[in-house]
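Request: Not sure, any thoughts?
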Amino acid sequence: MSRQAGASPRMTSSHFAELLDFLPDVLAWVKDRQGRYLWVNRAFLVQYSLDHQIEDEEGAAASVIGKTDYDLSPAFLADQFRLDDEQVLAGHRIVNRLERLGDARGAAVWNVTDKIPVADAKGAIIGTAGITRAGGAASSLDATAPGFGPALAHMRGHFHQEITNRQLASLANMSLRAFERRFLATFHLTPQRFLRKLRLRIASRALVYTDESLSKIALSCGFADQSHFSREFRRQFARTPRDYREHYRQP
C-alpha cells in the first residue's frame, strides 16, 4: 500500500518514516505548503478509520492523502491547524505542546504535539511535519520533556486554577530562574504563555461544543474574568469568544 502522492518531501521516502509505522501510539504526518497531506503513518490511518468508520487502511489512505485539515476536521480545528502550519512554514517549531482533545460531551484525551518545518536540499521550506502522542501520566510526560513531567501534569490537572512559575519550578525540583530558562529553551514559550495557549485551546472547544456562558468558560479555564478571557482570546484567534462561537457553532 502506498501512502505517498507526487513529489513528497525527502522524509517520506526515508527509512525513518518507515520506522514510524511501528509506533502504534504516535500519529505522524507530512504536509505540503498548501496543507495537503503527503504522507501519514499507520497509526494515523488506523485512528482515522476508527473515527470515520472506514473498514481498512486503503480506504483511509484514499480519504487522507491529498486532502487538507478542512476536509478531515471541524472548521474551528482546521483553522487552528492552519495557523500552526503558517507559523511552522515561517521557520518556527511547535515543541511539546500539551493539548486536550475530544469534545465536551466525551472523555478528555490529552496529547503532546510537535510540528517542524520540512526543507528541500537548498534549504527552502517546502512543507511541515508533525507527530502527536498520548500524554498520560507524569512519567510519560517526563519522557517526552525530561525534567518537566510533574510541571506539565500539574498544568493539565489544574489549568482552571491560578498557577505560578514558582509552583511549577518546585514541582520540577529547579530554582525559579533555572526553571524559566530551561522551560523557554525546551518549549520555545515561557511557562505562562504555554499555560495561556493551553487554556485558550480548551476554551475554544467549550465555545463550540457547549452552551456555557462566556463568564463560566472564562472561570473554568483559569482566566480572572470574562474581560481578561475575551482580550486574550481575541489576541490568539483574531475573534472575540462570542464571534468565535457564532462562526463555528456546530449544527
Observations:
- The chain has one domain: 73-248.
